[in-house]
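Quick one: structure for this chain?
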Amino acid sequence: MIKNNFNVNMRMQASYATGVNYLNNDFHKHKVYEIFVMLESEAKYYVEDTIYHLKRGDVLIINSEEMHKFPNQDNMTFSRLTVIFDPDIFRGLSTPQTDILYCFNSRKPGENNLIHLDNVEFNEFLSLSDKIISLYNQHNYGCDILMLSYMLKLLILLNQKYMSINISMSDTIPIQVKPILEYIDKHLIDDLSLDTISSALKMDKIHINKLMKKYTGYTIHKYVNIRRTSSAKALISTGFSATDACFLSGFNDYTSFARIFKSITGFNPRDYKNR
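Got it. Here's what it folds into:
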C-alpha cells in the first residue's frame, strides 16, 4: 500500500510502502541514487557481492554504479521508505568543505552501504521525509525550494552519520563466488554458457550453479540474462537503439533479447526506450 510520493521534474521521487512484494527483485542498477530505509521487520538486501541484514532503523545508500536487489524470499510483509534522486540536482550545491554526495561517492561498489540510525536520528529522518512528501501537491511560492532544503538536511544527516561510523554489518559473498561474478561482468558480450565459465575458471559446473543459486538466488543462465538486461537498459537510456543495445549487451538475436527483456523489466525494449 503506497502512502504518498513526491516528484520534482521527474528527478526526485520518494514513497512509503507496506507489502509482501517489491518493485524490482532482480539485480539491477539505475542512473539515479537510491536511499532505502527499513521501517519494520527484517530482511536481506544484496549490493554487488555484499549481503546486508536489515532491520528497523537501517538505511542503505546506493549509487548509480551499484548492482543491487531486494529479494523477499520468505514472503514476509515489510514496510520501507524509498528515496530516489538525480545526483545532478545536488552536485552544484556542494562546497569545498561539504560534499553533499560524499557517502554515495567515496566508497568502493558494494562496501559500507549501510548506515544505522538511532531512534532520535531515525525519527528526524522520517520527519524530514514526511515534510518533503507533504509538499508534493502544494504549488505555493517556495514549495520546490523547501522540498530541496529538506532533502539537503536529510543528506547532511546521512553524511554526518556515515562519517562518524562507516562500518557496516554485512556478509561478503564467499570468495569462491567472486571469480564467477567478475568473469560474467568482464565477458558480457562473450559466450557465457555454463560450460564456458566452468572451463575458464576450472570449476565444476554443478558446483558453480549451486554456489550461484545459494548466494544470488539465480542459476548462471538467469543471472547472465539479468546482467545483460541491465546493460541493455543502461545503453537504451543513454540513446542507443533497442537493436544496438541487444547486441552490445551480449544477446545473440533480437527475438530472444526482447522476450528476456520483457520478462525481467515488464516492458519490451522499444516501449522501454519510448518510456
